[in-house]
Amino acid sequence: MVTTVTTVTTITTLAAMGLTAVIGIVAIVSLIAFLVLKELVSANSSGSSLRIGKFVNVGIWPLVIVFGVFIAIRITEVLP
After folding, report:
1. Smallest Cα–Cα separation from 69: which of 31, 34, 39, 14?
2. Of 6, 7, 18, 30, whose CB count within 10 A is highest?
3. How far apart are the first and last CA of the chain?
4. 3-class secondary structure per residue, the chain
5. Rounded Cα distance, 63 and 41, in Å
6. Rounded mean pLDDT for each run of 10 residues along the chain, 80 residues in total
7. CA 77, CA 11: separation in Å to the nearest integer?
């Protein structure tokens, strides 16, 4: 009985860690995509480009915060 509980707990923990890594990677890739889009839009000075640039800024800041938390967690895992 104890072995079964320990095995299930271990598998659940590994699955949660894997899901966290996937979410972090998706957030980082999204941040890079938004930053590239913002640079491409800022090269053009039309009205629609300025509007798109403002909308992209709304998505960038939360992803920057997620990126900071992701990096902080990775650093605390490495440090003793």
Report:
1. 31
2. 30
3. 33
4. CHHHHHHHHHHHHHHHHHHHHHHHHHHHHHHHHHHHHHHHHHCCCCHHHHHHHHHHHHHHHHHHHHHHHHHHHHHHHHCC
5. 19
6. 52 61 81 88 81 83 86 83
7. 20
**What is d(CA 66, CA 31) in angstroms, rounded to the nearest whole number?**
9
Token pair in block for residue 15: 């699955």
pLDDT of residue 73: 82
Q: Record the tokens describing residue 40, joined without a space.
A: 């491409």
Res 37: pLDDT: 87
List Cβ neighbours of 79 (8 Å cut-off, separation of 6 or more): none
Res 16: pLDDT: 57
**pLDDT score for 10:** 55
Both tokens of 69, joined, read 């938390």
